[in-house]
Task: inverse folding
């Protein structure tokens, strides 16, 4: 993708002032006008048949990018705040949920860390008020939330390289263990294990979806539809359409997966799959 970007930008006569990309989301500052921006988008989409860009322009001086709302200030500089979609409900792990207290505390801390990381000085206080209200509605004690906010503020007052390094973090435990969380019992087990330098993590014993039956009937594996297509450098494609190919009750996807992880030699695969397997595993042309 880096090569595509460099070639696309270098082959256009006007350049963006800023080009920042995270995976497949790109933030650019374009100083050449709206019409020229549309032409630049067409130029990007003409570079490769399988790469297509869509575009969202700023509205009222604001533009969301990932979880950041970027806004244009009166002096021309850019401000930033936490962005939430219109469908966001402010629902988080409820404080009454049967989870370890540390997991609930991490919900509060992670939201506050995001607030201090993303928000600028103008939007930080309003973001903290919003989080305090939302967490209170999710059952969290306001005093605990404010205490966490104070701790996070102290942490972010330190230099960035010192924020995530503590003496405890630098120590390697003898072992790490994940156990089901049962209130009152798991904590005692964790305290005993800690004496032996074993770090304990917790998971849920039962979740709601385990108790609620699925709303749909189970479909037999041999009736699943699918399309598998593997392009070849010769210009042809290998594909199987309509129904998943069954080989003694095993799907084509299962066979290829086994081969890719090294559990099945290529020479033992059926003849009709041998060429496909070579291509998928990188041994064929």
Result:
């Amino acid at each position: 993708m880096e090569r595509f970007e460099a070639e696309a930008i270098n082959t256009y006569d006007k350049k963006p002032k800023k080009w920042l990309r995270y995976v497949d989301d790109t933030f650019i500052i374009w100083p050449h006008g709206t019409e020229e921006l549309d032409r630049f988008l067409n130029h990007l989409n003409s570079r490769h048949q399988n790469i297509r860009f869509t575009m969202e322009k700023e509205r009222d001086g604001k533009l969301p990018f990932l979880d950041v709302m970027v806004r244009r200030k009166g002096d021309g500089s850019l401000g930033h705040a936490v962005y939430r979609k219109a469908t966001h409900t402010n629902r988080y792990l409820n404080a009454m949920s049967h989870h370890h207290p540390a997991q609930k505390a991490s919900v509060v801390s992670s939201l506050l860390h995001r607030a201090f990381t993303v928000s600028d000085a103008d939007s930080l206080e309003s973001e903290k008020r919003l989080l305090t209200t939302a967490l209170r509605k999710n059952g969290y004690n306001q005093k605990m939330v404010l205490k966490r906010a104070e701790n996070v503020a102290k942490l972010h007052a330190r230099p960035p390289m010192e924020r995530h390094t503590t003496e405890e973090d630098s120590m390697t435990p003898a072992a790490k263990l994940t156990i089901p969380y049962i209130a009152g019992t798991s904590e005692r087990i964790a305290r005993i294990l800690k004496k032996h330098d074993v770090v304990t993590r917790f998971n849920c014993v039962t979740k709601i979806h385990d108790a609620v039956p699925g709303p749909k009937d189970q479909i037999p594996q041999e009736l699943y539809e699918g399309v598998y297509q593997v392009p070849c450098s010769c210009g042809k494609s290998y594909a199987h359409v309509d129904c998943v190919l069954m080989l003694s009750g095993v799907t084509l996807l299962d066979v290829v997966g086994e081969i890719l992880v090294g559990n099945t030699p290529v020479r033992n695969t059926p003849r009709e799959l041998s060429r496909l397997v070579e291509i998928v595993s990188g041994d064929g042309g």
